[in-house]
């Protein structure tokens, strides 16, 4: 009799646990990218600590933020979300503030956002000999009255992840506080990086920033070069 009672209690315990564990798992996706609202070009960032996507699940009265970082190419993706309505904030990048958005997932699973970058950077690079590369670039401001250009830099790394926190070249940051923005934006810079190894791949990008809140950097695209 005791054995029957024990087995009965065990059965109900298993059923109860199964019911408690029978919750939906977050399996919905939100993905997209940020683009220059005037040119339509991709806006490049750094990862982490660059472009941030912050979500608030409006199912709850006091939702906690769900944060995830964008990628270097300005895209973002989160595949672990519940299907609900969300408030969306795109921030933390080197662009001017954008309005808060409201989306419903999975109905709005693709989200491309137009923003205005603080700086635009056009850059090209090439191998220059057995141990060097040359980078040519220019800078432009979208709102010259909003802030001074404070730094420009060539950043080199041996992996595709290259930004102000990930580089191998020495002293890449050039202080431009004493140089007028008019001169900076009307100059084509040509910088040479030496001391690189032959038979090696390098990843290069240009970074520059104004005196914006957070000292956020704008970037060029990542360029791969192979030293023969």
Automatic annotation (TrEMBL):
Residue ranges occupied by any DUF3823 domain in the UniProt entry: 29-115, 120-222
UniProt name for this protein: DUF3823 domain-containing protein
InterPro entries named in the record: DUF3823_C, DUF3823_N
Species of origin: Gelidibacter salicanalis
This protein's UniProt keywords: Signal
Signal peptide residue numbers: 1-18
Keyword Iron-sulfur among UniProt keywords: no
Pfam families from the UniProt entry: DUF3823, DUF3823_C
